[in-house]
Amino acid sequence: MRLSKIFKNTLLVLMACIVLTACATKKEVETQTTTSASTTEAKTETEKADPIEPIAGQMQGDVYTGTDSVGYLAEGVKDRVFFATNESILTTASRETLRAQAAWLRKNPDVTIVVEGHADERGTREYNLALGERRANAAKDYLMTYGISSDRITVLSYGKERPVDAGSTPLAWSKNRRSVTVKAN
Amino acid sequence: MIKKIFSLILIFIPLKAFALIEVDITRGNLDPLPLAVSPLSIDEKSRLSFEEILLKDNIGSEISQIVENNLRTSGIFNPLDKNAFLQAPDIAHLKPRFEDWNLIKAQALITGKVNYTEDKLRVEFRLWDVLAAKEMMALAFTTVPTNWRRVGHIISDKIYERLTGEKGYFDTRIIYVAEEGPKTQRIKKLAIMDQDGFNNKFLTLGNELVLTPRFNPTSQMVTYLSYFKNMPRVYLLDIETGTQEVVGDFPGMTFAPRFSPDGKKIIMSFANDGKSDIYTMDLENRLVEKITNHPSIDTSPSYSPDGKYITFNSDRSGYQQIYIMRSDGSDVKRISFGNGIYGTPVWSPRGDLIAFTKLHKGKFYIGVMRTDGSGERLLTENYYQEAPSWSPNGRVLIFYRETKTDSKGEGFSAKLWSIDLTGYNERLITTPTDGSDPSWSSLLSN
């Protein structure tokens, strides 16, 4: 009762605004660093990379390489990328998928997106929420490198709350370690 | 509020007699103390009155059933079979024939009486030491009849305290996440129930995903994570009024909330640009303070009971490990150095231990360590389990466990379990639906 009164205190809204601005400034600086780093990396890769055929199974290391559960943002534009356990590093295949997404988004400038980050069930709930956010941001940063404005991208982590595969196997977990780009409008 | 409902009358102030029964609860108890819980006696007029109000045939037996059940599940007492009792409840309450109780090997005896007086429920009980042939304690409570279950829990707490020398944990509640539906589309609701699983009540409808509810020190407020409008944010809920509010105005996901021990702050994580840091928000002046500042994931913060330190998990070393720091964020020290990944540290209410979840070689463990990281002890191993929460006396941990699914991805379940700090007495806590993320309240009466 006393609390709710205090909650309405305008002075405090002001405090919250200060925090907001502080975060916004910091974000800009970091985005810049990531951008320059990943651009160089991406270039070297396209020069070097020979198309590698996925080895027999549906996983490379513990990253999912199959097509089960994969949806499409548009024709030929896959909606998701997969990650290794506890990692948020984008694989060569993931970068290719995200470049295709970026190219499509550049052609469709009115489309805004949500990048959903997910984790497998083999981690504590709270850590997985943070890990999902980190994965979604890895995808977001890469899209930004290819010219998509951050205004068009919202990041949403589900942690381990929304698996696509209910299995308790390494293959099922690999499908669940993902970030999915979803049209928001 | 509690003081308004209950008036507690001491009939005798029990004298500290050293010859009387003492139960040691610091080690695993494989030989629980045999005791007899005689049904509370009730006169016919009172019985009929309660039958009408509470729809219970015999409220005296019902209350003693609660006491018996609590004492049994504690693992340190062994309530004996009522069929072996020789003495009638009303006579036993006045003057037990100790030879009779000795004969069935009861070391302690609980007797009592229930009355209906002026629309109130009056319960009187006595605890007897059978071998010493002495009364150890006598108390009476008067309350509104609908509070009958709580009377049973309070009596259990008084007996536990008298026999072990430590506060009990029976007059408490559990807040948790009730789960239903397929694993890929779970519907989750906040739910609250008594410690023994009764009086289960849902607090949200399940329209949005909710996670990790935690009580404040008075157990009247809850902080939790809700995906309301698809924006994962920390919320504050007043259980009695049902009002809820977002905590702070962050431009992204806030999660992993807990109250400070004085209830004045909420500590939580804020995720931004792939990093998660720990923040506090003062509930009175809404001042937000950033506590950690590191490019890693810092989350699952929990205060020490004196509020001077914070334990949390961070992957700054490469993997999730447990750290402690001063409450202003200074002096960060890693304390987990065993094999595996460590998470969800929770400071014990006694201050001497930190409970945690550990993942090692594909198995999940609930364990405890001292606050400097020494003396690691794993209490239970399973396919998946996490998120321990302490009983208010620091003797029991409640957590949740998920099952492996079969080859078709079916057979998933999430259940609440508890285990004693000793590593003994592991128990499934029955809930109407599946459950996860349990949080134990403080003692409701003191």
Please describe what this structure looks like:
The complex is a heterodimer of chains A (about 180) and B (about 450). With about 180 residues, chain A is an alpha+beta fold. Chain A is about 50% helix and about 15% strand. In chain A, the strands form three sheets. Chain A has a four-stranded mixed sheet with strand order 5-8-6-7. In chain A, strands 1-2 form a two-stranded antiparallel sheet. In chain A, strands 3-4 form a two-stranded antiparallel ribbon. In chain B, helix 3 (about 60-75) crosses helix 6 (about 150-165). With about 450 residues, chain B is mainly beta. The model of chain B is unreliable at about 1-5 and about 10-20 (pLDDT under 50). In chain B, a hairpin with a 2-residue loop joins strand 24 (about 355-360) and strand 25. Chain B is globular and about 70 Å long. Chain B has six helices and 31 strands. Chain B has helices at about 1-5, 45-55, 60-75, 90-95, 100-105, 150-165; strands at about 5-10, 35, 40, 75-80, 110-115, 120-130, 135-145, 175-180, 185-195, 200, 210-215, 220-225, 235-240, 245, 255-260, 265-270, 275-280, 290, 300-305, 310-315, 320-325, 335, 340-345, 355-360, 365-370, 375-380, 385-390, 395-400, 415-420, 425-430, 435-440. The longest helix of chain B is centred in the middle third of the chain and has 17 residues, at about 150-165. In chain B, the strands form seven sheets. In chain B, strands 1, 2, 3, 4, 5, 6 and 7 form a seven-stranded mixed sheet that branches. A four-stranded antiparallel sheet of chain B has the order 10-9-8-31, with no helix packed on it. The N and C termini of chain B lie close together (about 10 Å). At the A-B interface, helix 1, helix 2, helix 4 and strand 7 of A face strand 16, strand 23 and strand 27 of B.
